Amino acid sequence: MLAVARELFAERGLEVPMAAIARRAGVGVATLYRRFPTKEALVVEAFTEQFAHCQAMIDDALKDPDPWRGFCTVIEKVCLLQASDRGFTAAFMASFPDLHSEVRDRTWEDFAALVQRAKDSGQLRADFSPHDLTLVLMANSGLAGVPAEVATAASRRLVAYLLESFRAGTDALPPPVPLSLDLVLS
């Protein structure tokens, strides 16, 4: 059931009905609800491993001796994850009461530290804001719905363009907008 839920969430996002998950898993809806009493419980369980993976990416980037490379690696990996799994960004940003908010908060704080580290090294433009990650994810989310191989290739190209614009020494941008990552779901 969990494997099927992950697969359907990746293909169609979190709006997949519980009945569709049960049907594809070959079980009754009651069986699914006995194991996962709410959809939120299923979402949390389905994405727990990916939440940990996302935090580990940032932890590794913070340890990288090259702050720019660490920053770029996180942006690249998060965008590839988003392009290949439509449900992940929605699950990560969902406001479910039991959805590991401490993991989400720590990940955000660590990403902000990664941004500051890259700025301090002089490699990331001074006007980059951690909130710009929302813009990156919103742009990248436009790839949802296209075949996975196309989405990942297009995501790599989009991220390469964006990373070039994030380098220090490029022209000034309009001021950052404090966007919430919840807007990626809209």
Automatic annotation (TrEMBL):
Q: Which PROSITE patterns match?
A: HTH_TETR_2 (PS50977)
**Keyword hit for Secreted:** no
Q: Name one Pfam family in it.
A: TetR_C_43
Q: Which domain of life is it from?
A: Bacteria
InterPro entries named among the record's database cross-references = Homeodomain-like_sf, HTH-type_TetR-like_transc_reg, HTH_TetR, Tet_transcr_reg_TetR-rel_C_sf, TetR_SbtR-like_C
Q: Which UniProt keywords apply?
A: DNA-binding, Transcription, Transcription regulation
Q: Is ATP-binding among the key words of this record?
A: no
Q: Which part of the chain is the HTH tetR-type domain?
A: 1-54
DNA-binding region(s), residue ranges: 17-36
> PANTHER family in the record, alphabetically?
HTH-TYPE TRANSCRIPTIONAL REGULATOR BETI, HTH-TYPE TRANSCRIPTIONAL REGULATOR RUTR
Q: What is this protein called?
A: HTH tetR-type domain-containing protein
Tell me which species this is from: Lentzea cavernae
